[in-house]
Amino acid sequence: MTFGAATAEDGRVAAEAESDRLPKNGKRYHSFYHWLFYIRDMQILGLNEYCDTLRAFESREDQ
């Protein structure tokens, strides 16, 4: 996984990442992620994670 941009403001931290791998089934999995952390007093209160579900679906063995 390669981490990209990150931004922090008003109790939120946004971060991006990209993955590129070749699982045992031989179907390449290349996807992008975004996380949004909610933070207060240096503790994570919540997290939203976003990813490209179509790419995950296409890399499944039964496809």
Key descriptive features of the protein:
single chain, 63 residues, mainly beta, Nuclear Transport Factor 2, Chain: A, four-stranded antiparallel β-sheet, 1 helix, elongated
Characterization of the model:
With 63 residues, this protein is mainly beta. It has one domain (2-58): Nuclear Transport Factor 2, Chain: A (Roll). It is 10% helix and 62% strand. The chain has one helix and four strands. It has one helix at residues 53-58, and strands at 2-9, 12-21, 29-40, 43-51. It has a four-stranded antiparallel sheet with strand order 1-2-3-4. A hairpin with a 7-residue loop joins strand 2 and strand 3. The longest helix has 6 residues, at 53-58. 0% of the residues are buried. The mean pLDDT is 88.
Topology diagram in text:
Layout: E1 2-9, E2 12-21, E3 29-40, E4 43-51, H1 53-58
Antiparallel strand pairs: 1-2, 2-3, 3-4
CATH topology-level name = Nuclear Transport Factor 2, Chain: A
Count of DSSP E strands? Answer: 4
Overall tally of domains: 1
Low-confidence stretches: none
- Helix/strand-derived category reads mainly beta
Report the radius of gyration as a whole number of Å: 15 Å
Number of helices in the DSSP assignment: 1
Mean pLDDT: 88
Regarding CATH, which class?
Answer: Alpha Beta
Task: Compose a concise summary of this entry.
The protein is mainly β. 10% of the residues lie in helices and 62% in strands.
